[in-house]
Specification:
Helix content is 28%, strand content 21%. By secondary structure, the protein is α/β, with parallel strands linked by helices. The protein folds into 3 domains: 212 residues, TIM Barrel; 95 residues, no CATH class; 202 residues, Aldolase class I (TIM Barrel), CATH 3.20.20. The strands form 5 sheets. Strands 1-2-3-4-5-6-7-10 form an 8-stranded parallel beta barrel, surrounded by 7 helices. A hairpin with a 7-residue loop joins strand 27 and strand 28. The two termini are 37 Å apart. The N terminus is likely disordered.
């Protein structure tokens, strides 16, 4: 790790492989992965993978540690209050098993881990949307040891983060690409009730979403939300030079053969050797790969679908890939010391990690004098470590009073027994100290009057005259100069959830500092990075949608970071809101077209007539297979992203009393000024909505893991 602002030397990055089940774990280890990541206990972002139980987790860690492979356990979903006791048990289980790190998303998970097993390293999941230098620094301040960066970054952006970060960085190098920024997608949750933020994504982005001159109600047929898999293995040298500590292969839902092919390719590329690019492509692709984000080519070439021809190539390539993990990869150096005496022989095997074992020939079997030098033959016997994870290192042969003849079969048996014993010694679990840490009884918001009404507008020009009568307004930071002076004292400026635009983070930092002296009521922080540069400006901070708060412990953590209040994530059921609101002022959405996706890739660029941004209106639509239109809005150049909205709005204007929050926020995005006035009037009059709407997930029971 390099000091902030100092160039890092080229690293030999860890190759981190997916292990969706025991068979995939074995394939990844046997093909040469340095580390694996796996899920267990239902709290991980791939709940439909095979995953591991508390018992099989311990076995997996023992298997990996015996072979010098690290294990990163994923507990990287958003959790509800009722799930916190089970989450605490999962952390204890991981600590007892001796995993090498926890991959976490929810702020509650990191807080619990620090209380229960403070020595257990934490890695910030890509779902935390860390994509800037300040984001990495913030994780370091919070006690994390690694930041897993967003997939959407260019080489230049990755290099800048690595140079500034006081902790390790990890990037995805190969595998499936989500269309949305990880941690900022609600499409699966709001379209089908299966939340990607809770590990149950149904993958709706792979279904048809079309654009263009479609007749109303006509189903879409194109796939404008389906990206090709990423493949940065050809860029391994640049990644190493940038200072990345770990390269991660996505794919816990794929096959053992897929894991082995990707691991082998990464291992060879890291060594500067050629690898089988055709095998990597054939074992799985969507008609090829993309490196568009990494190389800064964000265009229609990034999009692709899985075809029958792709599937046929996979079937044909599978036997070849299977050969890659037929035998163990030899990686653990072992030194041998063989002592031969007339009354028998003893062999000591020692690894470089402090483990030493000694085995001997059976007593009562004296050896005969050797007729010639037995050394070369014995050395060859000790060097035969094939089929094991061990790599023969230094070999010392001592003859006491001899030379004595030790049959090759006896030497081979000593070697086998010694390596078995050494593997067993290396596999003994090394648990972390577990501290007693009881969950508190979280205070809950007492039944009270209906929440006060606030409004959030995408643009200042959307604000109707009625907005002036509201107690609280929210507008994006980029709109600060357009907010009328009389309204600034009750207006919060919302910082963007991501900062990808040219100069991204620095531009937001400058705008935030400039706005601090212009009479505004405070800032809404939407990314962990923003706590660092928004604190100390003399204005209150509030947590926004991007912080993904779904439980009271995460709310407490936000307050410790500096938030005086927060917006409850809209995937939170009403039954779980009161506990969050009990930790301090809290707001919940009562109206709005939910931003289903926040994406750096432009879905409209997959159309031949939209290959560039020239002449684009920055507004469009996508039509799904059912004929529904999804509005698309582009925020370029403000923050470098596009937003895809739900076709129908969330509406709770006629049920405000059921929202256990201090504030109800009506969020206006695609509406006209006149339409915003109508909706505000309906909410104030507690009237039903005048069109199609959804209650979202507010009345859902939490899904069981």
């Amino acid at each position: 790790m390099g000091a902030a602002g100092m160039p890092q030397r080229a690293l030999r990055p860890e190759i981190l492989a997916p292990a969706g089940n025991a068979e995939m774990l074995s394939a990844a280890v046997f093909s040469g992965a340095d580390a694996v990541y796996l899920g267990f206990a239902g709290f991980n972002a791939r709940r439909t993978a095979g995953n591991f139980t508390p018992d099989t987790l311990a076995d997996a860690v023992a298997f990996c540690h015996g072979r010098g492979v690290r294990v990163h356990a994923a507990l990287n979903i958003l959790v509800y209050e009722s799930e916190l006791p089970a989450l605490a048990d999962a952390i204890r289980c991981a600590a007892r098993a001796g995993v090498d790190a926890l991959i976490v998303d929810d702020l509650a998970t990191s807080a619990l881990a620090k209380r229960i097993a403070p020595d257990l390293p934490l890695h910030g999941s890509t779902q935390m949307s860390i994509h800037t230098p300040e984001g990495a620094r913030q994780l370091a301040d919070m006690g994390f040891e690694r930041a897993i960066l967003a997939r959407e970054l260019s080489l230049e952006e990755i290099r800048a983060i690595c140079q500034a970060s006081p902790i390790e960085t990890e990037i995805f190098i190969h595998g499936a690409m989500c269309m949305a920024v990880s941690g900022q997608c609600m499409m699966s949750a709001f379209l089908g009730g299966r939340s990607g933020n809770r590990g149950a994504c149904a993958g709706p982005c792979r279904l048809p979403f079309d654009a263009g001159d479609l007749r109303p109600g006509q189903p879409g047929k194109a796939c404008h939300l389906s990206l090709k898999d990423m493949d940065l293995i050809p860029h391994m040298a640049d990644i190493m030079a940038a200072g990345v500590a770990s390269v991660k292969i996505e794919g816990r839902l794929r096959t053992p053969e897929y894991a082995a092919a990707a691991v082998t390719a990464c291992r060879l590329a890291r060594a500067g050797q050629p690898y089988d690019e055709a095998l990597v492509r054939d074992i799985f692709s969507r008609s090829g790969f993309t490196d568009g984000y990494f190389t800064g080519r964000n265009d229609g070439r990034m999009f692709g679908v899985r075809t029958e021809a792709d599937a046929a190539r996979t079937r044909a390539a599978t036997p070849k890939a299977r050969e890659l993990f037929r035998r163990e990869y030899e990686r653990v150096p072992v030194d041998f010391s063989l002592t031969v005496r007339q009354d028998g022989a003893g062999l000591t095997a020692a690894d470089r990690d402090g483990h030493t074992v000694t085995v001997s020939t059976p007593a009562g079997a004296p050896l005969s004098p050797a007729r010639s030098d037995p050394g070369p033959a014995l050395d060859r016997s000790l060097a035969k470590t094939g089929g094991t994870p061990f790599l023969a290192g230094e070999r010392v042969i001592l003859q006491q009073g001899g030379p004595w003849f030790l049959p090759g079969s006896a030497a081979n048996e000593l070697r086998r027994r010694a390596l078995d014993a050494l593997l067993a010694a290396r596999s003994v679990p090394v648990p972390y100290a577990i501290h007693p840490a009881e969950l508190p009884d979280f205070p809950r918001r007492a039944p009270a009057a209906p929440p006060k009404l606030a409004a959030r507008f995408e643009r200042a020009e959307q604000m109707p005259d009625a907005a002036a009568g509201l107690a609280l307004l929210i507008l994006p930071l980029a709109q600060a100069d357009l907010v009328p002076q009389p309204l600034r004292g009750k207006t919060l400026l919302e910082l963007p959830r991501v900062m990808f635009a040219p100069g991204g983070e620095e531009v937001v930092r400058r705008r935030t500092r400039a706005a601090a002296g212009q009479g505004f009521a405070g800032f809404v922080v939407n990314n962990l990075a923003q706590f660092r540069f928004a604190k100390g400006l003399g204005l209150p901070l509030y947590g926004g949608l991007g912080l993904n708060v779904t439980n009271p412990l995460a709310a407490q953590r936000c307050r410790q970071l500096g938030a005086e209040g927060l917006l409850i994530h809209p995937e939170t059921p009403l039954r779980d809101m009161a506990g969050i609101a009990g930790q301090g002022p809290a707001a919940a959405l009562c109206y709005g077209h939910i931003p289903l996706m926040l994406t750096r890739a432009c879905p409209l660029k997959n159309r031949p007539d939209h290959a560039s941004c020239a002449g684009c209106s920055h507004a469009g639509r996508l039509r799904d297979r059912k004929g529904k239109d999804f509005p698309v809005r582009c925020a370029l150049p403000d923050n470098g992203v596009r937003t895809i909205y739900n076709p129908v709005p969330l509406y709770m204007g006629d049920r405000l009393r059921e929202l256990p929050a201090d504030w109800a926020v009506a969020a206006f995005t695609i509406e006209t000024k006149a339409r915003a006035a109508q909706i505000l009037a309906a909410i104030c009059a507690v009237r039903p909505f005048d069109g199609d709407f959804t209650r979202g997930l507010y009345y859902n029971e939490p899904a069981k893991g």
